[in-house]
Design the sequence.
């Protein structure tokens, strides 16, 4: 008869070598009936071995995690900064538009592209849907019986596995998301301090007025065109300001109209 300790070790070795999560049936298939007492393979014995293995991992750097596709051994989240230094390839970065689309599919599935566009207010790029399908996070689950029969999308088990979920019921609720985002919103909602108005000496201001140059150096915070706060469209790249040009001095402002008037003479 195979003792429970050896069963646990065999399961651990199999999970380490597996390329993807293993189902309970796949784990049971590792053993033969004649390896157990009375030639009977008891599934409860395998479940007990998995429970014991999970307890053994409590004091280790790995954990036994059950996800949608089955069981897997993975590095604990708290150790990811150190393990990440081993990875030569940087993790992929996804756009806000892609993540918003994925969230809508996850929470509102099954949905069509039209449903997503109605919520987001912009068109859904074909590249976004292609990326989600290639990542095997989203799949076509049917077609809506309306003119054109648009495809309806839903999430996959690979999506649940990637985000460490067993079922869609484990997705955070809107209340949980609000609790996470409200502190960030309060941090970003700082009182705007307007820049102080600039002023010129009276003799310089009068000299400019005589030359026909209107002086208006007050900065209105309501009229400042801050492009960084404008929302970006789906395929629009953020604009980077050029900060290398030197600031113009008062002498530059004064000398320019003088040069123009002298040339006219």
Sequence:
């Amino acid at each position: 008869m195979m003792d429970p300790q050896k069963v646990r070790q065999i399961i651990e070795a199999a999970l380490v070598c597996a390329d993807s999560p293993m189902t309970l049936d796949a784990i049971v298939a590792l053993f033969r009936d004649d390896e157990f007492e009375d030639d009977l393979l008891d599934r409860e014995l395998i479940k007990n071995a998995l429970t014991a293995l999970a307890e053994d991992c409590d004091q280790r750097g790995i954990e036994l995690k059950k996800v949608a596709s089955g069981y897997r051994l993975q590095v604990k989240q708290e150790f990811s900064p150190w393990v990440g230094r081993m990875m030569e390839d940087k993790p992929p970065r996804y756009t806000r538009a892609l993540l918003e689309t994925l969230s809508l599919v996850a929470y509102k599935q099954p949905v069509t592209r039209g449903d997503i566009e109605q919520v987001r207010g912009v068109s859904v790029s074909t590249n976004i849907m292609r990326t989600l399908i290639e990542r095997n996070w989203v799949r076509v689950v049917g077609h809506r019986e309306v003119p054109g029969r648009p495809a309806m999308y839903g999430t996959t088990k690979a999506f649940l596995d990637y985000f460490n979920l067993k079922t869609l019921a484990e997705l955070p609720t809107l209340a949980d998301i609000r609790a996470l985002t409200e502190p960030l919103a309060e941090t970003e909602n700082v009182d705007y301090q307007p820049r102080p108005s600039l002023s010129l000496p009276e003799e310089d201001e009068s000299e400019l007025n005589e030359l026909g140059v209107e002086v208006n150096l007050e900065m209105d915070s309501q009229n400042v065109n801050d492009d960084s706060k404008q929302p970006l469209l789906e395929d629009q790249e953020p604009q980077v300001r050029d900060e290398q040009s030197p600031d113009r001095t008062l002498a530059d402002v004064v000398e320019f109209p003088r040069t123009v008037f002298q040339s006219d003479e």
